[in-house]
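dumping this here before i forget
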Amino acid sequence: MRKLILFLSLSMICFSNAQELNCTVTVNYDKVNNANTQVFKTLQTALNDFMNKTVWTDQTYNQKERINCSIYIIIDSYDNSNNFGATIQVQSSRPIYNSTYSSPIININDKDFLFRYIEFENLIYSPNSYDSNLISVLAFYSYLIIGTDADSFSKNGGSPYFKTAQDIVNLAASSGNKGWTQSDKNQNRYFLINDIIAPNFSAYRETLYSYHFEGLDTMTTDLKASKENIKQSILKISSLFNVRPSAYVIRTFFDAKSDEIVSIFSGGPNIQIDDLVDKLNNVSPTNATKWSKIRY
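structure:
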């Protein structure tokens, strides 16, 4: 479905083999003192190659279909045993039909990122084994990006990719690294992927589709109806607050969408949004300052 939409919107006439991601990986090592900076530069090159040259699915993506995403890694610590302490910011976006606009769909800041890397080592993803925390974390987010993108173009289109992301979590659970189990905390990779695929959280995936495909993608044909569809999709995902108020998946959605939501509902044509703003303040109070900018 994603390929069909992009084919129509970009008027592409020829296809070629390409990987799924168009990912920019940046490694920031400003916090590290008295270290050989070359290892960080080598790491950045290796991670860009890993993300962009790995074939993650059995689908064929044209160059223009590749999913735009970025990974920003801040190195907090590094020792002589090649151990790195870091945080990782993952972002991705998808194009909007008949528009030059790209809509953010993932914006996650993961602070549980400890890994070991030896300069010039080969980074190879194997779906049936846990090889390193570095590989597993990057593979997990690759499939999360691909699955979320697919869900935004077709209902439950991301299912096989989310399943693979869950498999990565299961393989990494016994590694001892943080972020992979339910015993760590309630906002980590384990809870994120389990909520995404859980039947009682289906409203999240339904919202990914209705918000983008039935909302943003139709704005050039019927702006008012599109805004209504987006409003209803937000109200739908907000219903998850009643299932579990602290659900990580709710936070990640609004972390990606808060600025866009304000922009959508701050211009004409006008629709009734009092109930929407009340709900936004209820389910995402950390963005209350942003919600106050929505004009009635």
